Amino acid sequence: MGTLLKGGIVVELEPACVERVDLRIEGERIVARGPDLRAAPDDEVIALSGKLVFPGLVSSHQRLHASLGRGMPRPKLEGYQELLEKVRWRYEDALDLDAVQVAATAGGLEALQCGTTTLFDLHSSPKAVQGSLLRVGRALHEVGVRGVLAYAVTDRRGAVGREEGLEETVAFTRKARGRLRGQVGSAPLFTVGREALEGLAEAVRSTSSGLHVSLAEDPLDEKLSTERFGAAPVTRLVDSGLLSPQTLLAHVGHLSWPELAQLLPTGAWLAHTPRSNMEAEVGYAPALKFGHRATLGADSVSADMFAEAQAAWLRSRDAGQPIDVLRYLANGQRLASQAFGVQVGMMREGALADLLLMDYQPATPLTAENLAWHVVFGLGSRHVESVMVDGVWRVWARRPLSVNPSVVAEQSREAAAAVWARMGEK
Q1: pTM of the full structure
Q2: For residue 168, what is the DSSP state?
Q3: What is the pLDDT of residues 326-383, one digit of tens each?
Q4: Which residues contact 297 (CB under 8 A, 6 or more apart)?
Q5: Whole-number Å distance between alpha carbons of 240 and 186
Q6: 215, 251 contact by CB (below 8 A)
Q7: For 7, 18, 143, 382, which has the most beta carbons within 10 A of its beta carbon?
Q8: Amidohydrolase-related domain location, by residue (predicted)?
């Protein structure tokens, strides 16, 4: 039995394509594309009447554990270091495994409802390390979102915490299957010493995966890395052999051109996070200079990649360095294709059926030539009507099918209150 989507306008991002065409889906794949496909006897036929069939979007850098922090009380802060010490790290230290799973469920559901079907999540819960990625994976599996998960290894809690983080990120990477994959993760390098960096390099080699790390979110990363370990973060990554086409670098906001020139030839992916950067007041990351493997991530804010793309494009225009927003979105799908070993994002035969049905009635013609303008000024998560992941409907007529949103929200509020209370006890 298959699913036949008839009469829709199929969209692809790069090269841009807007075409009225039918799609047939069988199992987890798109198996046929054509202008007037005939249904097999047992097909489910869905008449779209001109609705958009849009590829599922990807957040290339997500922090799902932050989902319970929205709106929490926070002191007046003086700079990035206080943001880390008084807010982010205190919050992460207050997470237990139950809160980790609830946060991932709430964040994953929000992503799904926004049309984001794949998340590259960099997790941190220093007092609840063992089993944390399994909890995140369990939450995403329940929601129906695709996930690539890593634990952020750090020396912030000493050698024991470092080894727990390495064990967690390696163990999950080795056993992840289905809609889940693993990566080796690292916290910012000013919290990662020589032995930890050696452990990360060995973990990457032993798992044949890549490193996911936040890099140069703020100038403090380079300053403290140099003071504590004698070298800037990029130099340390290069010397450790940790830069490759499988590496995923997030933020990348404060690097000199010579440092970027070291990064770009390695083929590493660079995840631009404009909304998070603005919220943290860490300055503008020069995304136009990120090369041909630049993509977008939402970090600790909602995984609404339409909103992220709009912020990225507008901020780049404001900086006088306009980016190709369709390429940045499409690169997220290319990154997911690399992680899962199968085509994601192209609405063609053989690709995974991760797609959105969007009820978008444009006020002007929609063409391949002006698609970017519609993405930036018209399309949004409000138009997402139904979401398919792996050939299975996970949202239909704006109603999630795998979880109850009211129950998820109630559990999330309860867990958030408990986490905030534990933060106040410190």
Answers
A1: 0.98
A2: H
A3: 999 999 999 999 999 999 999 999 999 999 999 999 999 999 999 999 999 999 999 9
A4: 59, 60, 61, 62, 120, 250, 271, 272, 273, 308
A5: 13
A6: yes
A7: 143
A8: 52-393
